[in-house]
């Protein structure tokens, strides 16, 4: 259910055999408030908080100047989000200079991300990176598998072969387009347009996803995430509604098929990044929504 002014109101309807008609799907949300919890890693590179979903994880770092973040045998493509300062990314013997306010995708294999100025640096991986999963603050949160989330399958290789690709986030809002969406073979990242809050409470967008999680990474501002577990015929699935007030930086993973909507409540700029793995088919089907669609084809 979207307000008529929300671009997502034009998305195709949910699958006919909705997960809402099944039972035994109840799962807890996975929340982490980085601003009032200890980092999972503290070393010469800085402080890093790690938090996972079913298929993806976030490594949020406050990097020291000159910090290096190496992946010696990365299994699949990952994402580097640079909200403010730039970085140097080394892969396959080539160093690429990525300016601040950018998003980059790094192929599998050995790579190194260097932050000359330090500051905020976000990396997004799939949970195939078992060494990083083990470090997550909620590493045990998925000991009971989510059987209704399909196994992760990569999307097709990028057009023109593998290389470090990066894109500016300096993209003006456009009527009918939702956020600033980029995808690679493993992830879809929507860097929502900064919102000067608070959000109008009469224009909310409660909705659910049948079979994939949504990660919501708050980089600035304050948000209230509203969650509602739909009643099924099994009372074991019933849970009370939740309203989670979270500042920045923080991360919330919303399980399917929980009905959810988020309200920016900070008086200043509120910046939220939505994360999905694999990329979403419905967003990809909307012409012009995925800003790097020419580089990353959709499955046949």
UniProtKB/TrEMBL annotation:
Q: What is this protein called?
A: 5-deoxy-glucuronate isomerase
Q: What is the lineage of its organism?
A: Bacteria, Pseudomonadati, Pseudomonadota, Alphaproteobacteria, Rhodobacterales
């Amino acid at each position: 259910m979207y307000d008529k002014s929300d671009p997502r109101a034009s998305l195709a309807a949910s699958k006919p055999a909705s997960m809402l008609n099944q039972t035994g799907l109840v799962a807890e949300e996975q929340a982490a408030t980085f601003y009032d919890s200890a980092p999972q890693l503290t070393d010469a590179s800085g402080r890093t908080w790690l938090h996972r979903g079913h298929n993806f994880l976030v490594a949020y770092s406050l990097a020291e100047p000159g910090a290096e973040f190496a992946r010696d045998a990365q299994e699949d493509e990952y994402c580097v989000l640079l909200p403010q300062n730039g970085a140097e990314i080394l892969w396959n013997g080539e160093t690429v200079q990525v300016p601040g306010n950018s998003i980059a995708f790094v192929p599998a294999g050995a790579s190194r991300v260097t932050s000359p100025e330090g500051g905020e640096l976000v990396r997004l991986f799939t949970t195939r990176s078992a060494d990083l999963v083990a470090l997550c603050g909620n590493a045990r949160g998925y000991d009971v598998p989510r059987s209704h989330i399909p196994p992760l399958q990569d999307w097709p290789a990028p057009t023109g072969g593998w290389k470090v690709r990066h894109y500016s986030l300096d993209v003006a809002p456009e009527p009918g387009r939702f956020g600033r969406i980029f995808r690679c073979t493993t992830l879809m990242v929507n860097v929502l347009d900064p919102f000067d809050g608070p959000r109008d409470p009469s224009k909310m967008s409660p909705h659910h996803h049948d079979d994939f999680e949504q990660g919501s990474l708050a980089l600035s501002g304050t948000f209230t995430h509203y969650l509602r577990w739909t009643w099924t015929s099994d009372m074991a699935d019933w849970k009370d509604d939740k309203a989670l007030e979270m500042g920045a930086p923080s991360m919330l993973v919303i399980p399917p098929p929980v009905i959810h909507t988020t309200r920016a409540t900070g008086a200043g700029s509120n910046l939220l990044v939505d994360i999905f793995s694999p990329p979403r088919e419905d967003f990809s089907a909307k012409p012009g929504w995925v800003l790097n669609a020419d580089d990353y084809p959709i499955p046949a």
